[in-house]
C-alpha cells in the first residue's frame, strides 16, 4: 500500500531553526533566532509560575482575557483579535482558510520561510516577487499579482533584512490589490520600531488588510509559543473556525497577558535594543562591513562573498557565538546577527574585527 501525501507537501523543505549548541564549547551565546536576550517581563514569569496550579484544567477556548489585554494596550477591538501558537500558527490558519489548490500566495524574495511552508501545506502555490536592494518593492509585488492571488504577505520590518516600508507604501499596496485578495502585514518585529502602529491605521480604514503579531520577540516568550492576528471581523470569524479550540495552554495565556500589560518593560526592551543595534551597525560600518539600517532586533551583515561569510561564522563559533547564515533566504554572503546584551554585542564586534 502506498500512502500518498497531498500535492505540494513533499515540496516543503524542513524548517532549519537557529543552532543553539557548538560541539565542544560550553559557554555559548545564541544570536541566531532574534530572541530577546533579556528574557520576558518578571510579571509574565510570575504569572507563568502561578499557572502551574491550574494545569489539570483545560485553557479558555476564546482567550478572552488575553484578547482584552492586547485590546487595551494596542488600542484594538478584542473581538477583532484571534490568538495562535506563535504567529506561525496564524500564518497557517490564513493559508488553510483562504488559499487552496489553484490559488497563489505571494510574498517577497527574502520573505519569512513560513509563508512558503504554509502555502504548500494548504495545497496553494507559493509565488515570490523580487525586492529592490533587500527592500520590499510595492510595484514589483503588484506586478506579480494574478487573478489567482489570494494572500500577499509582507513582513514589516522584514526578516532577515531588517528593512521596512512606510505607511503610504503599505496603503498603496493594499489599494492596488484586486477584490478577493488579502494583504497580511507580518508585524513580528513591529514593537522594535518607535511609535509604529504595525499598520493598524491602514487596516482600520480597509477590509482587505490583516496583521500578525508575536510574543516571541520583544516580549521574550518564544518558548511559550503565542501570537495573535488582528483585522476585519469576517477574517477573524473565519480563522476562528480553523483554529483548534484549546490551541493555547494555560501558562501561555497567563504569561502573555502579563507580558502585554507590562508596557514599561516592553518600552525598556525597545530602547535598549535600539541602543545596541545602532552601536553594532556603526561598529560594523566602521570596519567596512556593509549593513542595511535595521529597524528590528537583528542586523544583516553583508560580506564580499559566501566564503567570507562562512569563515566569519566559523570564527564566531570558535568564540562561542552563534549567528545565522542566511543562504536559505537567498542571501549567501550575509550573516544575520541578533542584537544581544551589551556584553554579547561587544564580543561579536571584537570577534569580527579579528577575522577581517
Ligand atoms: N514572522 C517573522 C517575520 C518571523 O521572523 C518569525 C519568527 N522567526 C515569525 C513570523 C514567527 O514567529 P512566532 O511563530 O514565534 O510568532
TrEMBL record:
It catalyses: L-histidinol phosphate + 2-oxoglutarate = 3-(imidazol-4-yl)-2-oxopropyl phosphate + L-glutamate. SUPFAM superfamilies: PLP-dependent transferases (SSF53383). Its cofactor is pyridoxal 5'-phosphate. Its EC number is 2.6.1.9. Pathway: Amino-acid biosynthesis; L-histidine biosynthesis; L-histidine from 5-phospho-alpha-D-ribose 1-diphosphate: step 7/9. Transmembrane segments: none annotated. One of its GO terms (molecular function) is pyridoxal phosphate binding. Homodimer. HAMAP family: HisC_aminotrans_2. Belongs to the class-II pyridoxal-phosphate-dependent aminotransferase family. Histidinol-phosphate aminotransferase subfamily. This is Histidinol-phosphate aminotransferase. The gene is hisC.
Amino acid at each position: 500500500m502506498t500512502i500518498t501525501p497531498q500535492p505540494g507537501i513533499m515540496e516543503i523543505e524542513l524548517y532549519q531553526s537557529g543552532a543553539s549548541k557548538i560541539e565542544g564549547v560550553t559557554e555559548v551565546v545564541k544570536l541566531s533566532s532574534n530572541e530577546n536576550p533579556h528574557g520576558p517581563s518578571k510579571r509574565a514569569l510570575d504569572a507563568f509560575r502561578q499557572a502551574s496550579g491550574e494545569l489539570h484544567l483545560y485553557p479558555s477556548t476564546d482567550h478572552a482575557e488575553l484578547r482584552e489585554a492586547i485590546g487595551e494596550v494596542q488600542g484594538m477591538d478584542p473581538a477583532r483579535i484571534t490568538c495562535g501558537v506563535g504567529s506561525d500558527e496564524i500564518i497557517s490558519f490564513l493559508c488553510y482558510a483562504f488559499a487552496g489548490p489553484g490559488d497563489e500566495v505571494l510574498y517577497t524574495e527574502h520573505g519569512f520561510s513560513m509563508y512558503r511552508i504554509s502555502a504548500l501545506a494548504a495545497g496553494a502555490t507559493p509565488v515570490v516577487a523580487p525586492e529592490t536592494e533587500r527592500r520590499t518593492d510595492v510595484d514589483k509585488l503588484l506586478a506579480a499579482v494574478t487573478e489567482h492571488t489570494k494572500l500577499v504577505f509582507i513582513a514589516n520590518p522584514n526578516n532577515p533584512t531588517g528593512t521596512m516600508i512606510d505607511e503610504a507604501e503599505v496603503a498603496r499596496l493594499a489599494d492596488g490589490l484586486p477584490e478577493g485578495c488579502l494583504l497580511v502585514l507580518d508585524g513580528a518585529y513591529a514593537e522594535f520600531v518607535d511609535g509604529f502602529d504595525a499598520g493598524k491605521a491602514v487596516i482600520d480604514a480597509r477590509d482587505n488588510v490583516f496583521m500578525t503579531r508575536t510574543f516571541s520577540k520583544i516580549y521574550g516568550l518564544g518558548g511559550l509559543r503565542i501570537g495573535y492576528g488582528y483585522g476585519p471581523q469576517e477574517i477573524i470569524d473565519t480563522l476562528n473556525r480553523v483554529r483548534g479550540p484549546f490551541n493555547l495552554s494555560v501558562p501561555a495565556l497567563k504569561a502573555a497577558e502579563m507580558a502585554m500589560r507590562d508596557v514599561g518593560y516592553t518600552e525598556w526592551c525597545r530602547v535598549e535594543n535600539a541602543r545596541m543595534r545602532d552601536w553594532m551597525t556603526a561598529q560594523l560600518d566602521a570596519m567596512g562591513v556593509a549593513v542595511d539600517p535595521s529597524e528590528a532586533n537583528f542586523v544583516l551583515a553583508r560580506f564580499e562573498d559566501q566564503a567570507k561569510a562562512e569563515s566569519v561564522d566559523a570564527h564566531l563559533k570558535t568564540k562561542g557565538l552563534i549567528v545565522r547564515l542566511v543562504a536559505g533566504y537567498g542571501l549567501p554572503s550575509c550573516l544575520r546577527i541578533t542584537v544581544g546584551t551589551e556584553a554579547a554585542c561587544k564580543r561579536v564586534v571584537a570577534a569580527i574585527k579579528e577575522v577581517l
